[in-house]
Amino acid sequence: MQFTQEDRVYMARAIELAKKGRYTTTPNPNVGCVLVKSGEIVGEGFHQKAGQSHAEVNAIAMAGEKAKGATAYVTLEPCSHFGLTPPCAEGLKKAGIIKVISAMVDPNPKVSGKGLAILNEAGVETAHGLLEKEAIDLNPGFLTRMKTGKPFVTCKLASSLDGKTALKNGQSKWITGSKARQDVQNLRAQNCAILTGADTVILDNAKMNVRYEELMKTEFTELNLNSDQLRQPIRIVIDSQNRLTPDLEFFKISSPIIILTTKLDKSSQWPHFVTQMLVPERDGKIDLSVALTKLASHNINNLFLEAGHTLSGKFSELDLVDQYIFYIAPKLMGDCSKGLVNLPEFTNMMQVNELTFLEVTMIGEDIRIIASPKKTN
Amino acid sequence: MQFTQEDRVYMARAIELAKKGRYTTTPNPNVGCVLVKSGEIVGEGFHQKAGQSHAEVNAIAMAGEKAKGATAYVTLEPCSHFGLTPPCAEGLKKAGIIKVISAMVDPNPKVSGKGLAILNEAGVETAHGLLEKEAIDLNPGFLTRMKTGKPFVTCKLASSLDGKTALKNGQSKWITGSKARQDVQNLRAQNCAILTGADTVILDNAKMNVRYEELMKTEFTELNLNSDQLRQPIRIVIDSQNRLTPDLEFFKISSPIIILTTKLDKSSQWPHFVTQMLVPERDGKIDLSVALTKLASHNINNLFLEAGHTLSGKFSELDLVDQYIFYIAPKLMGDCSKGLVNLPEFTNMMQVNELTFLEVTMIGEDIRIIASPKKTN
């Protein structure tokens, strides 16, 4: 399929629109739509929240009568099934759209190709594959869950330049600067859930929530969402030995919590927003791979791992990390300070965990590195 | 003093020229000169090597008769004293230059202001301060030595993302990639001397020299210097306990070596290119501060520190580092691998060594970070 430069511009706009949903659409994907008629954008829309109207519906509503005869640019193949809303393929057809260009087909087996088929049958021209890479990047979590049955796991790590996370006595406030910490808030807000270990919740008395006032210092403000519209990511904590107690700060924030455990704790009085989820054991610990599959079945697309060196190391060792985000502070803390990742002892350099750097940025006085695990073929 | 946009362009050219000397001028500073007459460059030159002609002399030679009535742009105040060559201030005057613009005055007390005075007395107009910052950056070592009586110390460190330099069993080949290692060769070649510890020379059997064939894969090639013109940096090794022996690889490369020791080793048969330098003790070790002063008095401007975690940590702890260059490889080696810098145990986050990131670049698959110690006022 040959696309024109104009096609590219409109699809790029649809991708920009899709991004506006990144704080709110979970568990749905981010989708944007642009309707163009006679070289003019007549309608635009994006999906904001599950249960609310899809991008195509919003764009058609904006276009009104002008939708008739227009071409639709959609970042994802229009849906063909009745979910919480009617199928968009039908909606586009009814609105009189004559051509639909999708950036990518739907990875969901319930939909893939069917939306295009409905349109074709109705005499609507279709094409796909325009800016596909960019469209894929819109929804790492949704696509990973559809393809692998697991969430997309981002492992966040923060350290000094010499890879240290705390002094020997445990002090760690603060290693990174305020801008980096705001950036973490922003990433938390874009993930469906945050995963941590019992140690972090107990020893650091961490809340692991998104603080609206911090978020308001980030790009989040561009979306003009108020604090009521802010969705708190689900907070997930691994507690194989049932060491958590309801009096911890973590349980003072009234938003959904999942405790992953190998044995239900029936003695504690957990608040109503806390769910215990049973996961089988493996080597005396929670089986992390099974845990991820369970979380995906609860519609968690993007999982943000913020844990200590043991749990982060375990995820890394088991190859369960899809992306790393490192914050490196301009500090040297010395060899007697605490390390970043606990890994088994390697006896050969060929065994170490290899990554690929994808992006390096200055965030305030710190450096942020985005990396992916190197795929071993 | 008001400078024009044209002035800036010519001085920027003089600075570019000065950089061409960066592999060879030691212990002299890098200097460039441009002669301009009626809006045209009539002569250009840079200083290439101590004992050879200065930038101004080269520019005048190129201009010939056209030097008469020209303006000279020089990155450093023209010298006024007889060193290995006659004073340039005199040369400029004799050549009929009518105006001299210097980027900066000379920091050398033997020269500072005197070159300009000679010119002024001869009726040559002078000005200075144009692109001064850029001119200062040409000669960190020379300026530091003139101002503080110590060399400019660059501490090079290379590690995995989690700050590790070797496996528990000592394996470390290779952490960084070939591009980063070529970059180190290029930096070695630009420094007057390389400083390391006896451990590195003994345990790694390191040569610490510049390999021409590796250098030829870097920007060095742009200068069209052949291997005969390559100056090996002086190799300096700290050996307070006289553990070094002449059979090590380090001593197989026939280029100047200085052994810093607290007690001369008179029993070993050192090759002719090895000098033992006596330095007083401090806390049972070489007094590093005194060592630096001694090295500066031997005309070492830029010192490249490539050492293990103990010596690097000591320099950092004693605040003797002017600049850090970190190479970070996309690898995780785990907490049981070996650390980057040995520092005293800190009990409060306020005590850790704070740096400022100046530059971050990708070098092949690795990241290079240039940082400076944060000045505590």
In the CATH hierarchy, the architecture of the largest domain in chain A is 3-Layer(aba) Sandwich
The Cα radius of gyration of chain A reads 23 Å
Count up the domains of chain A: 2
The largest chain-to-chain contact, stated as pair and per-chain residue counts, equals: A-B, 52 and 52 residues
Query: What would CATH call the homologous superfamily of the largest domain in chain A?
Result: Dihydrofolate Reductase, subunit A
Biggest sheet layout of chain A: 9 strands, mixed
In percent terms, what proportion of residues of chain A is strand?
25-35%
CATH topology of the largest domain in chain A: Dihydrofolate Reductase, subunit A
Low-confidence parts of chain A = none
**What percent of residues of chain A adopt helix (DSSP H or I)?**
25-40%
What is the strand tally of chain A?
A: 19
Shape of chain A: elongated
How do the strands of the widest beta sheet of chain A line up side by side?
11-10-9-8-14-6-15-19-18
Description:
- Two copies of one chain form a homodimer.
- With 377 residues, chain A is of the alpha/beta class.
- Chain A has two domains: 5-138, Cytidine Deaminase, domain 2 (3-Layer(aba) Sandwich); 140-373, Dihydrofolate Reductase, subunit A.
- Helices cover 26% and strands 25% of the residues of chain A.
- Chain A is built from eleven helices and 19 strands.
- A nine-stranded mixed sheet of chain A has the order 11-10-9-8-14-6-15-19-18, with helices on both faces. In chain A, strands 2-1-3-4-5 form a five-stranded mixed sheet, sandwiched between helices.
- In chain A, helix 3 packs parallel to helix 4.
- Chain A is elongated.
- At the A-B interface, helix 11, strand 16, strand 18 and strand 19 of A face helix 11, strand 16, strand 18 and strand 19 of B.
- Chains A, B: One of its GO terms (molecular function) is zinc ion binding.
- Chains A, B: Pathway: Cofactor biosynthesis; riboflavin biosynthesis; 5-amino-6-(D-ribitylamino)uracil from GTP: step 3/4; Cofactor biosynthesis; riboflavin biosynthesis; 5-amino-6-(D-ribitylamino)uracil from GTP: step 2/4.
- Chains A, B: Its EC number is 3.5.4.26, 1.1.1.193.
